[in-house]
Every structure is written in C-alpha cells, then in structure tokens.
Amino acid sequence: MAIYKLFPEKDAAIYSAYPAMNTGLDPILEVNNKVTDLNPTAQVARTLVKFDQDEIVNVLDNIAKVTASAGVVWDVDLNLYVAKASNVTIDSNIIVAPLSGSWNNGTGQYLDNNINGTGVSWKYTDFSGSNEWITAGWAPLITGSFSGSNNAGGGNWYTGSGGYPNIPQSLTSSQEFSLRSNKDLKVGVRPAVEVWYSSSQDINAGLIEISNEGFIIKWDNEFEFITSSAITPQLSYYSVDTNTIYPPQLDIKWRDFDYNTGTLDVIDTPDLFVALDNNPGVFYSESINQFRLNVRPEFPVRTFKTSSLYTVNNALPSESYYAIKDLDTNEFIVDFDTQFTQISCDETGSFFTVYMNGLEPERYYNILIQTNIKGNTIVMDENYYFKVVNG
User: Fold this and answer.
1) Three-state SS sequence of 113-163
2) In the 8-state DSSP scheme, what is residue 314?
3) Does 306 lie in the same domain as 245?
4) Is residue 116 part of a domain?
5) Which pTM value belongs to this model?
6) In a domain, 259, yes or no
7) pLDDT the model gives residue 66
8) pLDDT tens digits, residue range 125-174?
9) Are 278 and 382 in contact (CB under 8 A)?
10) What was the pLDDT predicted at 122?
11) Mean pLDDT of 208-230
12) What average pLDDT does the segment 299-315 reach?
C-alpha cells in the first residue's frame, strides 16, 4: 500500500493537577479540561507523542521518494484512537502542534501509589527537579502554556513556520469535535513533518531549524482552564503502551499509481472474477509485498479459440481501489482512497503494494477490492486473507 504506518517511540500525558507526575508507561493518553464539585479549579491534561525521525526520513527517502520526484502527491496523518469520551457537548477544537524542546518518556503511570517523577511532567521536561518547561521569553516561532502561578508549565510548541517554502504560515493543525462526531483523532500534520525533514537534511540553509521533538495535543485555549461546568471536554486515547491494537499512528501516504495496460483488455462487464495472486498467506512485519490480481469475466462470451479464455488475464479499470480490514474487529485498517490506494496496472496485470511494517503483527487481515464498471460500483470481498507475524 502507499500508506506507511509508524508507531511512537514515546508518549505521555501531562497533568496540571500533578505538576511533577510522569505517565510515560500508562496505557492511556488524555486531553482534558476537568472541573469537579470538590475542586472548582480546572484540571488540564495534554498529550505528548513522538515518532522516530530516522524512520520518517527512511520513509520519505527510500520508500515514498517524495522528496526526489517532482509532482508526487503525499500527505501525513496523525491518528489516535479513543478509549473514552465525555462532556464533549459543544463544538470544540483539539490543537496539534510540533513540540519545542526534548523530553524524556519516563516509567510512571497515572496516580501511582508513589508519584513517579522519572520522566516528563507538566512542570519538568526530563524528570522531577530537572529542566522546566519555558513559561516566558520564548524563542521566535515558539509559544508556551498557561503561565499562571499555579499552573506554570505544560509544554512549549511551534506556531510559525519560519519561512519554509510551500509551508503554511502556521505549523499547528486542528480537528473539531461535536456532541455526535467521531472522537478518534485524525489530523493532517504534513507541514510539521516536512519542516522536520528539511531541517534534518539542511535543505533550507539560513532558516530556523525545527527538529523533531514530537507533537503536543491539547484543547484550544478557549477550552482550557475554564471553570464552568458546561465546558469540561475529556478525551482519553490509547497510548503506545496499550495492550489493544489501537496505539497512536503516523500515516505517511503517497500516490504510487501507474496505469499502463499494454496489450491487456480492460474488463468491461460487472460480472467478473478476481483472484489475488502473490499471497503466501503469512508475512513477516518487515515484508513488502506486491499483490497481483488475476481478472477475467465470470461468464465469457462464447467464441472459437485454440486456447482457454480462462488463461487470459484482463486489467481492472483505472477506477479501482483496495482496502484492508482487520479480520477480528472488521474495522478498516486501510480504507478505500481515490488518492492513495488506487490499483496500478502494467502489461502483466493489475497490482498494488503493501508495506507490512505498518500492520499490527500476529493478526489476520482481509483485502477488499472496489472497482467501477459501466456505472456500477462493485466491492469484492472474496476472502483474500493474510497474516502478519513478528519477524
């Protein structure tokens, strides 16, 4: 697939109510503005998450080739999966911004019997008593958190883009939530990733270098430190330490579509048979596999030939796409996408490539094929199964 999924190297939630508490190994990440009857002071939680820069550079350089091929369409999404949502009763925005300053993951969990101060917290970047988050006098392009005497800290992040070519003025992204909206977080973060890459490769000499320290995820300013009981949005997401299949993911997507049928006929009947080739059924997580499709009419027209029609391969129409489902949960891991999962074709037949590294190991997956023929949208779910195992 032209979608490569990266998992975090570290993540943690930080809490204004516990300024020295580390939660680096907690299975839950929180983005909250919480007010209780016993304590009318707003308690704010923010989330920090970082993906390995070498992995990002490797994808951009050696797989997507997006930095070397002019005109290649690509994008990046940050995905967090909701564990619990409450009190999101009015339209509100979550902000995602690149962090400024290094931080340590730590080994704590939320409300340990003895508060663990081994890593990042609301007040400290490294461990309890170490360097503190800057609360005033920030460098250019950087801003900070609430600087009141009781809530100083909470992270530093970039807002401006520093004049990088083709990058929006702001590096922050946002997603709006409402009462009945999907509470999973899926937000485009290409500008931040592109600036990280440019800085690491010294592509734009003379500009402010913005290194990859990860993202901060927080409610918009107008929904933080609000003591009104009507504004207490609370979202909990699974962390990289979850025992579920929903850790945070950074999806790097690019368009690898190439369509050249050669001498193949493009199938023109909605009554078609499609078989998945090049599928041994089990793949190591480091595998990259090119699946090929054998396509023919289910009811071929009778003609006089010296060879069987069933040995002749056809091409799928150019408006054909694939998707990948988790076989147990029946959830789309990769959904049909007209930009990034379009099925290619060469003189041999239709094909697409899947990078197994972005799929959770020790699970079974199902491939679905969608095509459009003569005004019919056809989705084929023909038990194209495979399993990813630990290498």
Assistant:
1) CCCCCCCCCCCECCCCCCCECCCCCCCCCEEECCCCCCCCCCCEEECECCC
2) B
3) no
4) yes
5) 0.90
6) no
7) 46
8) 999 988 999 988 888 889 987 666 567 899 999 988 778 877 877 899 99
9) no
10) 96
11) 90
12) 67
User: What is the percent of the chain with per-residue pLDDT over 90, rounded to a whole number?
Assistant: 66
CA 255 – CA 253 distance, rounded (Å): 7
Structural domain range at position 362: 272-389
Q: Do 206 and 337 sit in the same domain of this protein?
A: no
- Of 254, 284, 318, the residue that ends a domain is 254
Domain limit, last residue, from 254, 286, 303: 254
Count: domains in the chain: 2
User: Cα 369 vs. chain centroid, distance in angstroms?
Assistant: 22
Neighbours of 158 (CB within 10 A): 25
How many whole angstroms separate alpha carbon 274 and alpha carbon 96?
42
Beta bridge partners of 252: 4, 76
Q: Any residues with CB less than 8 A from the CB of 284 and at least 6 apart, and which? A: 356, 388, 389, 390, 391
Specify if 266 maps to a domain.
no
Region 25-51: what's the mean pLDDT?
A: 90
Q: Could you tell me if 250 and 223 lie in one domain?
A: yes
* Cβ neighbours, 10 Å, residue 180: 7
Specify whether the CB–CB gap between 49 and 277 falls below 8 A: no
Q: Report pLDDT for 35.
A: 85
Supply 317's token pair: 């129409």
Residue that wins the pLDDT comparison between 67 and 13: 13
